Amino acid sequence: MNNANIKLVVLDVDGVMTDGKLLIGSDGNEYKSFNVKDGMGISLARYHGIQFAIITGRQSKSVAIRARELNIDHVYQNISSKAEVLYELISILNISLNEVCYIGDDINDLPLINIVGLSFAPNDAVELVKDAAHHVIGKNGGQGVVREAVDLILTKQTDYKQLVLEYLNKKEKVLQ
Length: 176
Fold this sequence. Notes:
Blueprint: E1 8-11, E2 23-24, E3 30-31, H1 36-48, E4 51-55, H2 61-69, E5 74-76, H3 82-93, E6 100-103, H4 110-113, E7 118-121, H5 127-132, E8 135-136, H6 145-157, H7 160-169
Parallel strand pairs: 1-4, 1-6, 4-5, 6-7, 7-8
Antiparallel strand pairs: 2-3
Helix pairs in contact: 1-6
């Protein structure tokens, strides 16, 4: 497991960025709960130069809104073949699979977990995914999984405390 060369972090949504619960109102709108610590971690990593992508099998307005808030440039929803999308994305970004980290929690994430340079699974991921991932995070989905993974990557890539100081001293709004 090499965290030092990660240039792109790819995220699943349900069960990773959220606790996996689907709240669907009588109006048909879907509601999701995101963790602000994940948002801060994404902001900090983006400041460091790491890119982010979301590849999810579901379609949700709340995912698009959250991705926009966090300035995640690459958002793919309603995807049946996550690997196909990832191959296209790394070609566009001119990076290798070894420079990609993927975080997923269920069997539809296995194709990506098995091909990227670094992979993480939440503590409550299905057993097959936890067995395949390079690292299992101590938190469940929606409880800061992305933040913990990002912090591990940043700790290997840079002086983490110095990065935080620089980030906090910049004159831009801090995104959570």
